[in-house]
Amino acid sequence: MNKIVCITGMPGAGKSVVSDFFVSKGYHFVRFGQIVLDIVKKKKLPLGEPSERKVREDIRKKYGMGALATLNYPKFKSLIKKGNVIADGLYSWSEYKFLKEKFGKYLILIAVYAPPSLRYERISKRVIPKNDNNLRYRPFTKREAESRDYAEIENLEKGGPIAMAEYTIMNTEDLSYFSKQIKGVYNKIEMRKLKS
After folding, report:
1. What does the alpha-carbon distance between residue 96 and residue 196 come to, in Å, rounded to a whole number?
2. Is residue 37 in a domain?
3. Mode of pairing for the β-strands spanning 107-113 and 85-88
């Protein structure tokens, strides 16, 4: 069976960079939170943390804390038949447990870490590329990023998946240091197929 590699970490840690690397190696891509952003756009809500938080929390009130894993499950199930999958943005402990139950040893979790001050600096300097229709690279002010951190830790069980990650990639220095770690973890994951 193919693997489903999920990326977890706080906003601005570098999850998208890790996901993009795996996509460049042929992994199929799913973004957990795209459901939230699609609703924000569909409802024509103002872009930004307050709207996104309300939609995220409304979805979870309706479907439970594992909502984004549950709602994305048909995509995961379909794509894993075609090849390995990289899933960007696993948030909650319930999402992790749901996917672990469905995929067992074929689920691999990577945490991406950067300290808050560095994340806030990076995230506030983001510029949305013209072709970013899915809003992957939207900027946040320091206050918005900090508010999102608190909401994700307190309301979305974010600490559990980070603690349970099989691999942690440190994004604390320059891009070349980060890239080297990403490649190292990718190679370890690829070696796992020899043991399956």
Report:
1. 21
2. yes
3. unpaired
